[in-house]
Amino acid sequence: MLEGKDELVKQYLASIPFDRRLFRQDIRGSLAHAKMLAKQRIITEDDAAAIIKGLTSIQQEIEQGEFQFRPELEDIHMNVETRLQEKLGDIAGKLHTARSRNDQIALDMRLFLKEETSRTLTRLNDLQSSLLQLAEANQDVIMPGYTHLQQAQPVLLAHHLLAYFDMLQRDKERFRDCLNRTDVLPLGSGALAGVTYAIDRDFLARELGFGKVSTNSLDAVSDRDFVVEFEAASALTMMHLSRLAEEIILWTSDEFGFIQIGEAYTTGSSIMPQKRNPDVAELARGKTGRVYGNLMATLTTMKALPLAYNRDMQEDKERVFDTLDTLDLSLQAFAEMIRTVKVNVGRVRAAFRKDYVLATDLADYLVKKGLPFREAHRVVSELSIYAMNNDRCFRELTLSEYNKFSPLFGQDVYDITLESSIAARNIPGGTSLQQVQIALARARQLVERTP
Amino acid sequence: MLEGKDELVKQYLASIPFDRRLFRQDIRGSLAHAKMLAKQRIITEDDAAAIIKGLTSIQQEIEQGEFQFRPELEDIHMNVETRLQEKLGDIAGKLHTARSRNDQIALDMRLFLKEETSRTLTRLNDLQSSLLQLAEANQDVIMPGYTHLQQAQPVLLAHHLLAYFDMLQRDKERFRDCLNRTDVLPLGSGALAGVTYAIDRDFLARELGFGKVSTNSLDAVSDRDFVVEFEAASALTMMHLSRLAEEIILWTSDEFGFIQIGEAYTTGSSIMPQKRNPDVAELARGKTGRVYGNLMATLTTMKALPLAYNRDMQEDKERVFDTLDTLDLSLQAFAEMIRTVKVNVGRVRAAFRKDYVLATDLADYLVKKGLPFREAHRVVSELSIYAMNNDRCFRELTLSEYNKFSPLFGQDVYDITLESSIAARNIPGGTSLQQVQIALARARQLVERTP
Amino acid sequence: MLEGKDELVKQYLASIPFDRRLFRQDIRGSLAHAKMLAKQRIITEDDAAAIIKGLTSIQQEIEQGEFQFRPELEDIHMNVETRLQEKLGDIAGKLHTARSRNDQIALDMRLFLKEETSRTLTRLNDLQSSLLQLAEANQDVIMPGYTHLQQAQPVLLAHHLLAYFDMLQRDKERFRDCLNRTDVLPLGSGALAGVTYAIDRDFLARELGFGKVSTNSLDAVSDRDFVVEFEAASALTMMHLSRLAEEIILWTSDEFGFIQIGEAYTTGSSIMPQKRNPDVAELARGKTGRVYGNLMATLTTMKALPLAYNRDMQEDKERVFDTLDTLDLSLQAFAEMIRTVKVNVGRVRAAFRKDYVLATDLADYLVKKGLPFREAHRVVSELSIYAMNNDRCFRELTLSEYNKFSPLFGQDVYDITLESSIAARNIPGGTSLQQVQIALARARQLVERTP
Amino acid sequence: MLEGKDELVKQYLASIPFDRRLFRQDIRGSLAHAKMLAKQRIITEDDAAAIIKGLTSIQQEIEQGEFQFRPELEDIHMNVETRLQEKLGDIAGKLHTARSRNDQIALDMRLFLKEETSRTLTRLNDLQSSLLQLAEANQDVIMPGYTHLQQAQPVLLAHHLLAYFDMLQRDKERFRDCLNRTDVLPLGSGALAGVTYAIDRDFLARELGFGKVSTNSLDAVSDRDFVVEFEAASALTMMHLSRLAEEIILWTSDEFGFIQIGEAYTTGSSIMPQKRNPDVAELARGKTGRVYGNLMATLTTMKALPLAYNRDMQEDKERVFDTLDTLDLSLQAFAEMIRTVKVNVGRVRAAFRKDYVLATDLADYLVKKGLPFREAHRVVSELSIYAMNNDRCFRELTLSEYNKFSPLFGQDVYDITLESSIAARNIPGGTSLQQVQIALARARQLVERTP
Predict the structure, then answer these.
(1) Total structural domains within chain A
(2) Same domain? C13 vs C108
(3) Is A52 within the bounds of a domain?
(4) CA distances from D362 to A272, C100, C143, D144, D424 (A)
């Protein structure tokens, strides 16, 4: 409680400017606590009923913007409790029986992050769905596949998009694992040592929808692993978004010109009217830093803290709130933005200025005619240099030119095309249309399950 | 291949100084690949047999220190392949059929991290075991429980130690989840688009012990999530060790004096002969920074990389090697160090200079006599100030002094002791001996399962 | 401009919720720009006068809370400019001549950080001043000096406090160097390539108080080094505060008990009325993570951005605002908290449970009698073990006991005391009272200069 | 000292595997210390002479690879001292008089980083020189200037390259400031409290080339600010390299095709013989993560350490060694790589597919004819949309088409070209040839000074 402190200290210590966000969870926890206290005859049914009624009306006050949050009351717990006291008098003071702010805040955070993680799963699913639609709608578009940002081998655009689908699928799994470890009731741990009342923790868990009950009170009040784990999973998701963002930025550049984004997701310039900047993608790429930074912040804060609760831990909230808001908006903005993408099929095709991306296929051609791979690689390497030096495509070379490099080349070398290259990669996970259609179907199933 | 490059570039690009560590995984992958190529009739049985024999002898050469690693051959793959060529001539060149260094390195890293993760699980289990032993051996020791590093309520030392046990249990779960996502075969993805040969990826997965096969070739060669996830799980484990380290450092200080560490785990001073410094604990606390930094490094490296493979990704190895070595040594050193801990029961007891840690119990006493908790808290707060101002313990106050603060205090207030306080916290997760013994038994079961 | 965008995109892209903080700098820059445009006859004197009047009244509107910030206008620049247009009509549109939002935001940030850096210097100076006062008031208090948190050698408390003074002095130097690199006018760089009007950049620099003018327009609009450097300097300062915080937390613990903090800077417990938790120190220690995280965030955001301006850079603001607010409040809270510290001289003295901290002095004694240092160290080491095993202080040993370890010990060995140990360290930077008084006087001079 | 410890502890604690790198600095410090001890008559001239001779021969042994480093001797200090004892017997033990390993390691690190910082300055200068040469050799090449990776306005390639020159110039300044704070002698601080001998610290400073002497012994042995500051300056430099790397990767892509890098700085593919991957640039971009991570690591390690020396600090070395090696190689590799760059002038010119980059110039044209800037911007915006929708360049529009948008357009609108656009930006810092030549001359002067 910060009553009587000077303004500076109040401002420094008060968490109410940010933990007010937890008011629903805080009240929900208190409702369950009150019910349990009555059930266990620690307080009377009448007291419990009064408390429950009081809390319910406080929730309404907050939701309707009528509640006056007071920094001198430090945090959401004391703001709610003090208001309850104004309403009920001394009865209110019974709510805090068999409870401490230490297990209370741990409870609030777990309730909150469980909800947020579920929402994140939905957002991830929605972005997957939007990538999937774009892939489904462009199944026959062949684009250059890159390594080192150099054109390497042709791939289907749909295959490329599904790579991001797979990343997001792993993200969903990670958030689910994290959710599983968040799903533990800390209430009953008291300040640090457990409480001296005959409370029913299993009842509390059922009431509040927790799958497990914490097994060590000291750990339960000083554990923020679930916060860090949420931030780490978020950092990976943002890393994936930053990669997708980078490609969108490249693909909308004048030099690539592969796609156009709907005008709603680009902005103009204050000085250069011709521009359509991919601001949403850029900003998401930039926000990756923020989410990484929040992870580092919480890890640093928790470093070397002795048991049990320390005030340092109050720092977990603003960081994870910032992370989840960033993630939530970014995932939504991407899902919508992807829905507006138009593929410039002509520019994509024109990007294959020469057909050197077929070099691997030429080498594989020679292997299938009997050359060991390394030897085939050497031959095609020399052939490529010859073609490049003469500024010719492979398909423009004559058979006798081919044969200068190997007698194994026959007329069927001209059957090697972008299309044949794609078709040949017909193994699970490969870019052939058949495989990609299998992958699209599998992806469709995954997004249509509940996230 | 770096032949003909100048020294500086060789030094800059060559990964062989660190990826040589993957030689077993690299050869193991090649053995399975050769078998599969033969089974699929992509190469002959004879060629496969020669390749397998050659690879086996190369493994021996490396293990016996007879292998000459050459930086100009860039990486472990080309060092092994070139040696194979020296042994077999052109046949060796067939091994690289239907494979690229991009899916090969992804395979090596996954094989390697699967093994390392299993080892980490064993190490975590062993440290749990060592904490458990210490807890079992000191079941009746009551120590001050702290919040804000201020004495708060009495707890059992065993309960305190089990808090760390629980943290490590979560660590094991996280590493298991991570292992599950590492357990995916990338081989067959080729450079980025899949291969043009009729390979059998399921056979490869079975041969190499993978539970799943990757579903998108572009993703499979550019995915380092499993590395980041290992580093994130390690960061959390090191955070837990840093907290334990901090407490060990506090507890061995002159001022606390709660424990002594075996001399093998302390060092003296070059100038102050009387000192026994807890260097192992300090260094582990310090190494937390390194493991956090490695996580940050890999996340940063992966930020905004377009698909598919980019040379930046080579940076994943040294960071994760450093992390796993740090983690491995730290877990071992802690497990051994904890085994040498002697508890100074006298100093622990003496730490309760006054019995103010019983304040919560006094408040609970009043609640049970009918006072609302908040009112009880206020009464005990005033009582505490009175006692402190008079430099007296609670137990030294007379009943009439008690009664000045509340008429509810009776003779039985003197029954409130450290022991009664412990006993009263008899709810699941609480510090009562009964609950702690349940927790010890549960913990014993957990460590005796395979990790 | 975000007019017509949907709510999600507006919310994602709009910077006005945070860059409105720059309104004074933005208007100040515009005032100077308008004056310059008139002076260079790019706009008329009358237009300039109208613009200046309009901007001045907008500043008043904002300061008086009458200004309506509109997210659809995206940022502070367009909010101000649009309001100017409402006031002046088309004339307002002339203000943006020879300027872009890219050089404008670079200007605003530099103006802002110059002011903030100056304020930081004042805060650092004030904390130094408060540490200095505490040191001056406790010049004769001898405390244990620690290495590895083990008592090592006696030091003056004043000497210990001055160590923090020196850290903060380096911080001031770093912020001054950073200020020097922030003090560069970017205006005139346009969007990226410079402007096509005959502007006078030197005039702008003088008007706005800049010491230098940027020399490359592409760099000027895409440089955020000065932001990162501010964050790095802040991270070091927070690291110093975290160390001081750690010591305050230790020193106020029951086990150390060296100091008491004024009640205004501690908080009680919701459940344990006896506690006085050092929350301000704990929270500052925790906030170190936040400031480290912000540094990492901005570094990550800037990684691998091609020239020139990219939308990612918008992310610099919230991070650095958070850092400077954290730093500002933390420095203030510490300065005030330190002013309330009471030293418990008795507990500090009592901490020397035995006099083993004199071991180095005993070794030096033997050296001065002719023994090589390493040999002296060995002798005192054995002596220490003997004393510890017998639970005796050095001063309780008889001379004949001493002589069992070395014949060089004479009666004067009993002259070695905590006081003599302090006095003997009479070299520059040492802990003798004489040296410490020199250091106090030097420190006094440093804080009384302008920061 | 780790004699008698088990292998695990030895391996964990021993710093000799990495601090052996400091052997020259360690011996140099000892030589100065011995001289000073003799000068102050703390040891005899004869002893000093013997010690100096012994140390000199040890240095030779190490340099010639004949020295046997022993982990059980823990660190470089004890390895050298023990060898000295083998050579000189007891006299060797006198060297450690008035010194501790705590001030000794602080000295070694400062000596080492002073040298490394000077080397870094030279490397930075060399890279600047190589960028400058490329700029000088391509003064008349006009390229698209980008914001948001969208073509914005034409700039000179030389101007673009000089933006990196300016970044590196700031880097040099930061390293110089850092050097200034590293240039402080810690020797004489002893273990933590100063020494009890009449040493001459000014003499030591002069002997070892330090400009200042530390003023507080506790701070001097526990200060690692100079390490963090070196890492922070390195992080900024790597950030700059990562931006340059990104552009090199873009510019060598098939889609941009602006430059070619010498073959020595690219690598081929194991499977795609046609590729020339910009591996050096990619790897440098990737290594940015490593350097950021090292900064984070050291900051984390130092967080919340109480005074004075703690074993955690041993962790500073490997991180900063890794950073400086990375920086050193990266700067060298870039300087050499830039020297091999060939500009494909044709592709650069062809990148201006349309002349929309002249839009700002068109707007400025209208402003100069009397339109307020915002109005001019609006007109050109509409004109641009018209041109784009009709797939025409500005220069292909007829004057009557122009006049549909504004009557102010006259025949002279066709004088607006890429060349006129460049020429018009003739203000300090702008991209006109005249300004760029001034900047080139200034840059030439800066690199020809000593770095």
Answers:
(1) 3
(2) no
(3) yes
(4) 10, 15, 75, 17, 12
| Prior bond of B308 cis (ω within 30°) | yes
Return the SS3 of A212: strand
Interface of D with C in 168-227 (CB under 8 A): 170, 173-174, 177, 181, 188-199, 201, 213-223, 225
At residue A2 the predicted structure's pLDDT band, cuts being 50, 70 and 90, is confident
Do residues C196 and C297 both lie within one domain? yes
Of D8, D311, D336, the CB nearest to B8: D336
Burial pattern C341-364, b for ≥16 Cβ within 10 A else e, equals: bebbeebbeebbebbbbbbbbbbb
Quote ipTM for the complex.
0.96
- Please tell me the predicted confidence (pLDDT) of residue C273: 65
D329 assigned to some structural domain: yes
Residue C56 lies in a domain: yes
Instruction: Tell me, yes or no, whether C20 and C52 share the same domain.
Output: yes
Query: Judging by beta carbons within 10 Å of its beta carbon (0-12, 13-18, 19+), is residue C435 exposed, middle or buried?
Result: buried
Whether residue A248 sits in one domain with residue A396: no
pLDDT at B451 over 80: no
The stretch A104-118 carries a mean pLDDT of 98
C-alpha distances in Å from residue C326, one per residue of A150, A315, C166, C319: 45, 12, 21, 11
Across C19-44, average pLDDT: 97
- On whether both C55 and C173 belong to a single domain, the answer is no
- pLDDT tens-place string over residues A17-38: 999 999 999 999 999 999 999 9
- The token duo for C345 is 């001289």
C217 is known as an active-site residue: no
Does residue C93 share a domain with residue C220? no
Domain holding A190: CATH number? 1.20.200.10
Packed helices B225-251 and B279-302: angle between N→C axes, nearest 10 degrees: 160
Which chain B residues are closer than 8 Å to A373 by Cβ? 93-97
CATH code for the domain of C404: 1.10.40.30
Which residues of chain D make contact with C159, given a CB cutoff of 8 A? 193, 216-218
Per-residue pLDDT band for C326 (boundaries 50, 70, 90) equals: very high
Q: Check which CATH number belongs to the domain holding C70 and give it.
A: 1.10.275.10
Q: What confidence tier does D62 reach under pLDDT thresholds 50, 70, 90?
A: very high
Distance between terminal CA atoms of chain C?
A: 42
Which of D329, D350, D371 is at the close of a domain? D350
Contact B345, A198 (CB under 8 A): no
B78 and B165 fall within a common domain = no
Cα separation, B434 vs B451, in Å, equals 26
Residues 328-367 in D contacting A (C-alpha not used; CB under 8 Å): 351, 353, 356-357, 359-360, 363
pLDDT confidence of B3, banded at 50, 70, 90?
Answer: confident
Residue A1 is assigned to a structural domain of this protein: no
Distances (CA, A) of C142 to B116, C254, C431: 51, 20, 10
Residues D196, A196: Cα–Cα separation, whole Å: 57
Final residue before a domain boundary, out of B288, B323, B350: B350
Same domain, D425 and D318: no
Q: What range does the domain containing D218 cover?
A: 102-147+155-350
Tokens 């908790």, residue located = B373
Shortest Cα distance, chain C CAs vs residue B273, angstroms: 5
